[in-house]
Amino acid sequence: MNLTSYPAEPFRIKSIEPVKMIPREERERVIREAGFNTFLIPSDDVYIDLLTDSGTNAMSDRQWAGMMMGDEAYAGSRNFRHLEETVQDIFGFKYVVPTHQGRGAENLLSQITIKPGQYVPGNMYFTTTRYHQERNGGIFIDIIRDEAHDASLNIPFKGDIDLTKLQKLIDEKGAENIAYVCLAVTVNLAGGQPVSMKNMKEVRKLTSRYGIKLFYDATRCVENAFFIKEQENGYSDISIKEIVREMFSYADGCTMSGKKDCLVNIGGFLCLNDDDLFAEAKELVVVYEGMPSYGGMAGRDMEAMAIGLKESLQYEYIEHRVKQVRYLGEKLREAGIPMIEPTGGHAVFLDAGRFCPHLTQDQFPAQSLAANLYVESGVRSMERGIVSAGRNKDTGEHHRPKLETVRLTIPRRVYTYRHMDLVAEAVQSLYQKKESIKGLRFVYEPKQLRFFTARFEEID
């Protein structure tokens, strides 16, 4: 490994949060009490928390200072004006509707754009996104390139939409039966894989030909911009901000979870260009979130988000962010650990199917691998496989994704390279005794988004 290719943290640490490692026998008790679901582990019992990068970011001194300038007026908060101006400047959309987090924006977009029976094609599903689409009568269709479903294939821009698949869907179902195209940048469940600018242009050209709206899931758009700058011809000398602005120039709007690339702990927004859709969204946001000038956020949260958005565009920040994830991936790759290739922008995804070849998908290998990694090391990760995929709402059968993974998700500005070393050592240690990992079965299965609260037991 060439250590010079991994930049040091571009910040100094001013405040710390102590963590501790509880003994192994306590971790065994904790995981049993949690029903082998890492979401149900108390955070005090976690040593290194890689459950998610959503809302787990460390904020800067400027963001904390901004929190003290919160205007908590019920209507007309000056912090919303600052957030609105910042989002309009960075993304280029006309309208901004604040929400409490990304799924609030997904709910609004689904309600105002989907008619029952319409199709919503996208570059691989995401759990809450598909839930809102289906809850409003939509039918999700995966149109990501086939290579995204091959964990071992190491090629750039595996998040691209397959234009042939999209054209075929239009030809078979009719453009009028497509609510909109959902383009995620980056693609979470594919391993944090980016989408090329070339593909965005081509998708825009195709959708424009048929009058189909194109909306982005912008949650990790700054990470996507870094990959474009690093790997796509013609962008190496273009700033991250300019790349982001061009990315969204091909869209009709976007949903955003501010808990990721906005570097805050709560918040989100919906962006739109269409006057009528904006009018509908403004009405619904009052029902589900709050006034159109706060949308479920406090003024201080909106101020921190506006500042965080600007900080996220700094090259020194995003280079370190992506390369810290890449560092962990390289450590695991050198040890022969099976995982999704190439390493994405926010997480390393262990390939549970190859990690635990003795378990069938019906024995939930990714769920068990995540539980066993916690017992082994105190590191909390999460399942991204058949449990997360859920069931077909009509047949009741499991959705069976080709990728059965465990996500090691790196919070922003929280951990150091030494923490990544410890995680790599833990995964390697568990891999040496992978045959001891047992399968699981449900003891409690919620009907919706089951991965959050389901409980399991080991199969003897």
UniProtKB/TrEMBL annotation:
Protein name: Tyrosine phenol-lyase
PROSITE patterns: BETA_ELIM_LYASE
Any one GO biological process: tyrosine metabolic process
Cofactor(s) recorded in Swiss-Prot or TrEMBL: pyridoxal 5'-phosphate
The keyword S-adenosyl-L-methionine is annotated on this UniProt entry: no
Annotated family: Belongs to the beta-eliminating lyase family.
Domain of life of the organism encoding this protein: Bacteria
Reactions this protein catalyses: L-tyrosine + H2O = phenol + pyruvate + NH4(+)
EC top class, as a word: lyase
SUPFAM superfamilies reported for this sequence: PLP-dependent transferases
N6-(pyridoxal phosphate)lysine: residues carrying this PTM: K260
